[in-house]
Amino acid sequence: MQTHKTILASAVVLLPHLLACQVVAETTSAAVQSKPDVLRLGNPAGDRELIRDNQFRSGFLLLDPTPGKRVPYGRIPGPEGNPIWDLAQWSSKFPLTAGSGRHRSPQAIYQFNQAKAISFGGRSKTAFDLSMAVNASQEYGQRSRRKGEPWVHLLVQQDFDAPPFLVDLKSARLHIEVRLAKSRRTKTEDYTPSLHAAQFQMFLTVQNRNRQSPGYGKYLWFGIPLYDDRSRFPKAHKSRDFGGTGMFIFTPGGETYSSVSAHDREWITVDEDLLPLMREALETAWSRGFLQESKAMADYCIGGMNLGWEVPGIFDVELQVRNLSLKVTGLK
């Protein structure tokens, strides 16, 4: 499977869903090559949390910001255990390092430099589990990025252990609460919404993991858009990923997941069974000529995820996350 390389979209409709795909593509490929055949759920009737360390207490593996390949170069330790999550900062001029500024208190661990910051590992259930901030004004200065140039990311990602097949599931319930803490745009004369934006979103891979299938390893991107500066509710997007993987992207509009907009800067809650939407995503992909090697629903599972910022515009942004969960329930 091809590793994704960042290529800018030429139209506004493409921009919201290309960047997050970069994080998972490399690790998804590695997972397919190195892991044995995915097994059916050991307890088909039980519940299982797919997201490991969903309170972000184990810290992060730092990935080299050069796009195209997953290269860990350090870690940001957390209060518990070894890191489960990768922290990707593709195309950043100022990546966080283990030697970046660090402050620890009972409320959170705060790791920062002039261009970005993350806070995590706190014990307050009423605050947040993770906060992610990007100061793109430091990354770009006063010059807006131009068509064809890369842009900054701040994303967390992981592959799921024993990813479940869709046909074995009764439900796949996502719960996440987010609050926009800051979004400030630097005004420039060459500002263009199709090139200069700030978005926070989550992507899951729905992937063929049947080794006997001719489509083994192929996948689609399933999106949960949480914030887009250009619209109170991020727009739906169902099309090819022109960013490098060539796979299908299926992202329902933001109003599918919440009737409250992150623009209001209050906590919004997404609590949604994704299974029907994932089945719709596969049907849509097949109808549009994607994943033609296998149209068997039984071949596809939920493979992994990423979550975070993509900031092609000169924005200083921060968003907080709490109570993240993706719980699957097997069929009886």
Outline of the structure:
With 332 residues, this protein is mainly beta. It is built from three helices and 17 strands.
Protein described:
This protein has 332 residues and is mainly beta. Helix content is 10%, strand content 37%. The protein has one domain: Sandwich (Jelly Rolls). The protein has helices at residues 21-34, 136-140, 275-287; strands at residues 47-49, 59-63, 72-77, 85-88, 101-104, 109-112, 116-120, 130-135, 152-159, 169-185, 199-208, 219-228, 237-240, 248-251, 268-273, 300-311, 315-330. It has a 9-stranded mixed sheet. A hairpin with a 4-residue loop joins strand 5 and strand 6 (109-112). The longest helix has 14 residues, at 21-34. The two termini are 34 Å apart.
Keywords:
332 residues, mainly beta, Jelly Rolls, nine-stranded mixed beta sheet, eight-stranded antiparallel beta sheet, 3 helices, globular, disordered N terminus
Termini separation (Å)?
A: 34 Å
Helical coverage, percent range: under 10%
How are strands sequenced across the largest beta sheet? Answer: 3-2-4-9-16-11-12-14-13
Q: Biggest sheet: strands, sense, closure?
A: 9 strands, mixed
Task: Give Rg in angstroms.
Answer: 19 Å
Q: What would you call the shape?
A: globular
What value does the average pLDDT take?
86
Oligomeric composition of the shown chains: single chain
